[in-house]
Design goal:
Length: 287
C-alpha cells in the first residue's frame, strides 16, 4: 500500500460515495464513510455488501474478501470522527459548487494538515474550489465513474494550484485500487464529461427531431462505435438531473451552444423523470 495514503475518508454515502469507499477498502485501505443521515449510511453499507456478494456469485470477488472489506469501513454521521487520521479526503456530495466548497472547507479545518483534499466532481472547476480554501495546493480532482466497483477509469484533475506531489500521490492511489487514471488540466467538463455530455445532448436532440428511437440511437453507438452503452441509456443511469446540471454549467462556462440543454431534457427533469433512480427517463426502468 502507498505509505502516503493509508486512511481514506469519503464524504457522502450516495451512489458514488459508497462505491469509492468499497474499492478503497477492497484494496486494503482503512475507510471512513460519512453522511449527514444515518439511514443513508446504513443503505450505503447494504449496497456495498450486495455488490460484494454479487461479485462472489459471479466469480469476480474472493469470498474471504467480503468480510475483510466490510471490516475496513467505518461509517457514521460524525464529521470530525470520520476525518481523524485521514490521509486522503474525497468529497462525493451533490454537484453544487457552493456545497462542495463548504464541505472541503470543513474537511480542511478538521483533517490532518498533510491530508489531500479531493473532489469527485464530474465537471466543476477544481481551481474555483481551491479559491475557497487556505491550502489550495492540497486540492485535486479525483473523478470516479459509475458504477465505481466496475469502471476502471479515474480522472485526476490538476487545479491551477495543485502541487505536483499531490497529483503523483492520487495517481498512485488510483493505480493501487485497481483503476486506470488519466491526468488532465482543469477545464470545464475536464476530458470525460465534456466529450460524454456533448454526445449525450446530441443524442437527445436527435430524439427530439424524430431521427430515430432512443433504443436505435443507442444501438448505433453500441454496435457502430463499440460503446458498451448508448448515450441515452447512460444518461438514465447517471441521472437526467445530474446531466442537466452539468450541461447548464458547461453552457455557461464555455459559452457554447453545443451544451445548451435540449428541451426534452428540461421537460423530463421538470416532470421528475430522472432515469433509473425514479423508474422513468428515456427508458422505463419499472419492474
Amino acid at each position: 500500500m502507498n505509505d502516503g495514503i493509508r486512511k481514506v475518508a469519503v464524504l457522502g454515502a450516495g451512489t458514488m460515495g459508497h462505491g469509492i469507499a468499497q474499492v478503497a477498502a477492497m484494496a486494503g485501505h482503512a475507510v471512513s464513510l460519512l453522511d449527514t443521515e444515518a439511514e443513508r449510511v446504513a443503505h450505503a453499507l447494504d449496497r456495498i455488501r450486495r455488490n460484494l456478494d454479487e461479485g462472489v456469485a459471479r466469480g469476480k470477488v474472493e469470498a474471504g474478501l467480503v468480510a475483510a472489506t466490510l471490516d475496513r469501513i467505518g461509517a457514521g454521521t460524525d464529521f470530525a470522527a470520520a476525518l481523524e487520521g485521514a490521509d486522503l479526503v474525497i468529497e462525493a456530495v451533490p454537484e453544487r459548487l457552493d456545497l462542495k466548497a463548504a464541505v472541503l472547507r470543513d474537511a480542511e479545518r478538521l483533517a490532518p494538515g498533510h491530508a489531500i483534499l479531493a473532489s469527485n466532481t464530474s465537471s466543476l472547476s477544481i481551481t474555483e474550489l481551491q479559491h475557497a480554501l487556505a491550502a489550495p495546493e492540497r486540492v485535486v480532482g479525483l473523478h470516479f465513474f459509475n458504477p465505481v466497483h466496475v469502471m476502471r477509469l479515474v480522472e485526476v484533475v490538476r487545479g491551477r494550484s495543485t502541487a505536483p506531489e499531490v497529483v503523483d500521490a492520487v495517481v498512485d492511489f488510483a493505480v493501487r485500487i485497481g483503476k486506470d487514471p488519466i491526468t488532465v488540466n482543469d477545464s470545464p467538463g475536464f476530458a470525460s464529461s465534456r466529450l460524454g455530455v456533448a454526445l449525450g445532448l446530441e443524442a437527445m436532440r436527435m430524439l427530439e427531431e424524430g431521427v430515430a428511437s432512443a433504443a436505435d440511437i443507442d444501438k448505433a453507438m453500441e454496435l457502430g462505435y463499440r460503446h458498451p452503452m448508448g448515450p441515452l441509456r447512460l444518461t438514465d443511469l447517471v441521472g437526467l438531473d445530474v446531466r442537466l446540471d452539468i450541461a447548464r454549467y458547461l453552457h455557461e462556462a464555455l459559452g457554447d451552444e453545443r451544451f445548451r440543454p435540449p428541451a426534452i431534457l428540461e421537460r423530463l427533469v421538470a416532470e421528475g423523470k430522472l432515469g433509473k433512480k425514479t423508474g422513468q427517463g428515456f427508458y422505463s426502468w419499472e419492474e
